[in-house]
Specification:
The protein has 17 helices and no strands. It is an all-alpha fold and 406 residues long. It has a single domain, classed as Growth Hormone, Chain: A (Up-down Bundle), CATH 1.20.1250.20.
């Protein structure tokens, strides 16, 4: 086995983007799982209001995702990542100062909502760049490897955050800002500019991706993301307020997520090597639904960690397959915009997902079976929509019954 080929070690740009994502994931994983807990325990905000805050954050990022896709296609992936990194650096340092004083709650909420713009600029460009620098036959492997590297940071981040959260939320945000600096440096030094459309006047049809297959697939991924978006809001709130674990120990739950990605992504990708990307994704949505349903039966930290293993298997199966499907159906010159449209739909799900979860927590009074059973039903809807997408694509291309595996 050629290890250099298997790990894409000759692809410098791929590894620059991947390592940059590792550092960003470390900072993000360190801080983000504790925001809902910080809002609840320090600022005294209710679960329903916290859901609305995360909803507002996702709504803002919906529109920026489209702009990020246009920027990535017309002006270059590197430019989009640089702009997002600089923006993140500024706003995370500002949030650190506000959380240090534990005052100005309203301004803290506003800056938190606006902080999501950084990822909305970076993600479409990074996802498109992975496709740019990898061959079509190695794209699933490239996306899987990219996720493994990124999740090394995500595995270490929550564990580090669990130790540092006792010193204050501001410490976690300083580290998050520092990781934006690292991402900026790596991008400027090692990533060349990639664009698929020459600059010039941008018309309305250039900004929006029109494709009914893309829309069908994105609706399916939207319902999937409603389920997965409980990750950073409803899950930690339920763990602290219903299962009664200590706030800082939620870091161990999220560290399990990163660890399962690191050690499980490769074997799961190999297991599905002979299956289509869409079959891989549908199976993953099933694991998502089962995993979150199991959260409702959790009575302690160990139960929550076991449920997270099942949830993360779903993530391992869906995330690389999702990006690969988009890269296959996107016409030449529109990849970042297709990525951005799907990202917009997923951001819509992230907008309504926390509110849906917090509403269920409120009306069911933290009853586990009712709350998480209701949330899991969205995964069933996702599976139905993805199967409809598969049938529609088969009608467009009768010679292929499904998306080919990579």
């Amino acid at each position: 086995m050629d290890l250099r080929k298997a790990l894409l070690l000759n692809n410098g740009e791929f590894w620059a983007v991947s390592v940059a994502s590792l550092f960003r994931s470390f900072g993000f994983g360190m801080a983000w799982p504790f925001f809902s807990i910080y809002f609840s325990t320090v600022l005294g905000i209710s679960a329903f209001e916290i859901g609305l805050i995360f909803t507002a954050s996702a709504i803002i990022s919906i529109f920026v995702s489209i702009g990020g896709g246009v920027l990535g296609d017309f002006f270059g992936r590197r430019s989009s990542i640089v702009v997002g990194s600089v923006y993140g650096l500024i706003i995370y340092f500002a949030l650190s100062g506000l959380t240090y004083t534990e005052s100005h709650a309203f301004l803290t909420i506003i800056l938190f909502i606006l902080s999501s713009l950084s990822g909305s600029l970076i993600f479409p460009a990074s996802s498109a760049l992975i496709a740019d620098v990898s061959g079509e036959g190695e794209r699933r492997k490239a996306y899987s490897l990219f996720r493994v590297v990124s999740n090394i940071g995500w595995a270490a981040g929550p564990l580090t955050g669990a130790f540092l959260y006792v010193y204050g939320m501001w410490v976690l945000l300083v580290f998050l800002a520092a990781t934006s600096i690292v991402q900026l440096i790596l991008t400027l030094m090692y990533v060349g500019e990639h664009r698929t459309v020459s600059t010039g006047k941008i018309g309305r049809r250039d900004v929006v991706a029109y494709d009914y297959l893309l829309i069908l697939f994105s609706i399916g991924s939207l319902f999937m993301t409603i389920v997965s978006s409980q990750f950073l809001v409803s899950l930690p709130l339920y763990a602290v307020n219903a299962v009664h674990i200590q706030p800082n120990t939620t870091g161990y739950i999220f560290a399990v997520n990163g660890a399962v990605v690191i050690f499980g992504q490769g074997p799961l990708t190999r297991l599905f090597r002979g299956r289509t990307d869409l079959a891989m994704m549908i199976t993953g949505v099933g694991f998502y639904s089962i995993g979150y349903f199991l959260v409702g039966f959790s009575t302690g930290l160990l139960d929550l960690m076991l449920a997270m293993i099942v949830i993360t298997v779903g993530e391992d199966l869906t995330s690389p397959a999702l990006s690969t499907v988009i890269s296959v159906i996107a016409p030449k010159g529109k990849l970042a915009r297709y990525m951005a449209f799907n990202s917009m739909m997923n951001q819509t799900a992230r907008a309504i997902g926390p509110s849906i979860g917090s509403i269920f927590l409120s009306i069911y009074a933290y009853n586990g079976m009712e709350t998480w059973g209701s949330i899991s039903l969205f995964g069933i809807v996702s599976i139905v929509m993805l199967m409809f997408f598969s049938a529609s694509r088969a009608r467009r291309m009768p010679q292929a019954s499904d998306l080919p595996s990579k």
